[in-house]
Amino acid sequence: MWALVINPVSGQGKGARIGTHVAGYLNSRGINYEIIIGRNGIDQADLLQRFLDRNPDCSGVIAVGGDGLLHLVLQKITPAQVPLALIPAGTGNDFVRTLGWSPDDLDAILEAVLSKGPSSVDLGLVDGEWFGAVLSTGFDAIVNERANAMSWPKGPNRYNVAIAIELPRFAPRHYEIVLEDRTISTQAMLIAVANGRSYGGGMLVCPQSDIADGYFDVMVLHPVSKLEFIKVFPRVFKGTHITHPAVEIVRSKSVKITANAVAYADGERVGQLPISAQCMPGALMTWVP
């Protein structure tokens, strides 16, 4: 028995359409599954937990949605060591990209799920909360706070509007970053603790990050002028920002960050710093190309 967890409103309704396609795909191959759709995130998490309690030997979870649904599902399946297949239907789909799939590889992912076994990849664990791609604090977390409070516009443009609102008033903050072999005390504009390579819909914040090496890549953006930030920011979509002198990337199995700031993981609010995170090798079973 499989669990088919669908977020119908992800990707501005793409989740419902792709979820219907996935159900049809499973039906055509005689796969036994149960659909899980909640009234909200809390309800969906409860329904998934009940399914896992009833089906301790379930084959796995197929989640149709974006990184928000990934974050919700990880909290339930990781302790139970249940395999996960994530079918991209969100606006970002960064975890799917990190695994090596294209957001258009729907049937290829399903075919892999039904034809071969899963592989083990790392996850991050921040103060008891699992995350797959990137934990971040600084400017992008402030933008997330603003975007989440906005009802307009919808979709990715809301993030762009939030950037335009927050950048003029933004100032770097002081951070204490404790790694396993050193402590970095610095002013910074942004800190990204990367298990995966990208966040924010394809921003390659740590393009050399390996999801199966047991380490975080920790990117620190030291202070630059607003004009320089605007010039450098677009380079993150190709990962070429890492050559800028204000960008520092270090590797560590653990990280503790202290500052007067908030943190987000996989686009979900973790809360106020300080936070402590560990890279957990092989914590998730999933399918890769």
Which residues sit in consecutive blocks of at least 5 with pLDDT less than 50? none
Biggest sheet features? 6 strands, antiparallel
Q: Which structural class should the secondary elements be placed in?
A: alpha+beta
Q: What do we call the CATH topology of the largest domain?
A: Tumour Suppressor Smad4
- Counting DSSP E segments of at least 2 residues, the number of strands comes to 16
Number of domains: 2
Give your account of this protein's structure.
It is a single chain. The protein is of the alpha+beta class and 289 residues long. The protein has 2 domains: 116 residues, Probable inorganic polyphosphate/atp-NAD kinase, domain 1 (Rossmann fold, 3-Layer(aba) Sandwich); 150 residues, Tumour Suppressor Smad4, CATH 2.60.200. 30% of the residues lie in helices and 32% in strands. The protein is built from 8 helices and 16 strands. A 6-stranded antiparallel β-sheet has the order 6-5-16-13-8-9, covered by helices on one side. A 6-stranded antiparallel β-sheet has the order 12-11-10-7-14-15. Strands 2-1-3-4 form a 4-stranded parallel β-sheet, with helices on both faces. Strand 8 and strand 9 form a beta hairpin. Helix 2 packs parallel to helix 3. The longest helix has 15 residues.
Question: How would you summarize this macromolecular structure in one to three sentences?
Answer:
The protein folds into two domains: 2-117, Rossmann fold; 131-280, Tumour Suppressor Smad4 (Sandwich), CATH 2.60.200.40.
